[in-house]
Automatic annotation (TrEMBL):
InterPro entries: BCAA_transport, Leu-bd, Peripla_BP_I. Transmembrane segments: none annotated. It comes from the Bacteria. This is Branched-chain amino acid ABC transporter, amino acid-binding protein. Belongs to the leucine-binding protein family. Residues 39-365 form the Leucine-binding protein domain. Keywords: Signal. Coiled coil: none annotated.
Amino acid sequence: MNTFKRLLLGLAIFSVIFLPKLVFAAEPINIGIIAEQGTLVGDSIVNGAKLAADQINAKGGIDGRPIKLFIYDDHMRATDAVQAFQRAVYDHHVVAVMGSWISEVALALEPWAARLHTIYITTGAADPKITQLVHNNYNMYKYVFQLKYNATEMAQTVCNFIRDDLVKQYGYKTAYVASENAAWTEPLDAEYLKCLPKVGVKVVGHMRFAPNTTDFTPILTKIKSKNPDLLVTGWAHTGLQQTVQWHEAKYPFLIVGINAQASTSDFWKKSNGATEGIISQAEGSPSPITPKTIPFVKEYEKVYGITPAYGGYTTYDSIYVLANAIQKAKTTNTDALIKALEATNYVGVMGHIEFYGKDSPFAHGIKYGKGFATGVILQWQHGKLETVWPENAATSKVILPSFVKK
């Protein structure tokens, strides 16, 4: 065999062995996840994203392309989050960025999504200003979506539960509103003060406290002096210390509202059982919200050894919503994806998900109300986290702690 024939044979063997790997190697779809790692909700955001991406990749990815996650820790600082967003776009060429449960962080990222023409889906931040900006200047902020109930809707959920369960069944008539001082609780408290009287509950006091408060005895004592039936809350950065002090001192009012830290299975251990009786709103729970919910929770518990916080439910659904949008658009072009996301009609683990249109004051937020995801109300009972509202997802009825007045 002469040299020329040997060369041809060598090229033929090379093409058979190596070229198929190059031709069929699918380019990944890069997604950035920005979260406050080391926090309950931040870790749940990351875990929810990983679980969804792994499941989608195990089934062949998105039209044959695998999802590749780039995870960044913003250390609960807006400046770090902005740097992470820039890195995600410039260095890792992401199709979209998701995450963050802190409204101040999400609001800091919103202008960068506009400047860099990159989709940003917040899966934890609740401030309605996030979507109001989209409504007020759609062309600039059309890149931003909020796959999470906003604070106004969260307060409405709490009030509806109080009306259905605590007013009708227990005759409760008075409440004190106390929330941590943060961007997301301003609209939350404003809605509490509106909707509680509408459901038959008189507000006898209202306060906002610093998120770094460590001794809640003076606060709880002041609340007790007003003799409320209910303490209605907005707690996310805080929650553990006041829960323990409420239980140890046996304050006679029932705590209901938002206590994000109480929404996962390890809160019982962290509070040494002091969470017994605490009632909190959440985006999801180990209950039959949809046929997908319980299988998701079981798989999450199997992989991570804990039930997800609300950010786990929302971020898991967000990965699937984005994947469906890419499949529908048949491209990762940003403008085409925005249109596909706006047309979302998806049943996830947290319920039926659609986005409000640009004419809504909550533009690009998820729709709330009958026929859509509305959240659930959870209560700790005998060491177990039960769903007590709405009726179709409930696993138990409300049980009052022994020291709470009937």
